Amino acid sequence: MSSGSMIARLVAATAVGSLAGLGVFSLTQVTSRILFVVTGGVVGAVTVLAVQWYRRLAQLTEVKVTIPQLSELTFAVNNDSRQVAWRMFVETVTRVSTQPLVGDVGVLREALTSLYGLFATRGRR
User: Which of 34, 68, 97, 125 could join 115 in a cystine, given CB atoms 3.0 to 4.6 angstroms apart?
Assistant: First the structure.
């Protein structure tokens, strides 16, 4: 590394450190509502950055299902499969057949027809 490059990095680091120190000092001088607004904004920004960082690192790319003494299946996970899984989830939880039939409320035939309709749904978008 050349001495010119080292000096430039040292000057840049000093400037960034000075600005960070000035920012911290300014925040400690702020009171009342502005402090809450600034703190909320910083917490929100940090939260968004943390979620994006986690999503990049914890990206599910494939799922392996092993059935002992029979087979092993591997499923690739992409945006299309996520959308299909979400649609299936919504279709399943909104069916009458997934809700308990209590006492005189609901008809068993309607619940079974709803369940049959879940599997009869194909290719709809």
Answer: 97
**How would residue 116 be classed by pLDDT, with cut points 50, 70 and 90?**
confident
Cα(78)–Cα(84) distance, integer angstroms: 10
Neighbours of 2 (CB within 10 A): 7
Report pLDDT for 121.
56
3-state SS, residue 63: strand
Identify the sign of the CA torsion 119, 120, 123, 125.
negative
Taking the C-alpha atoms of 32, 37, 40 and 44 in order, what is their torsion angle to the nearest 10 degrees? Answer: -170
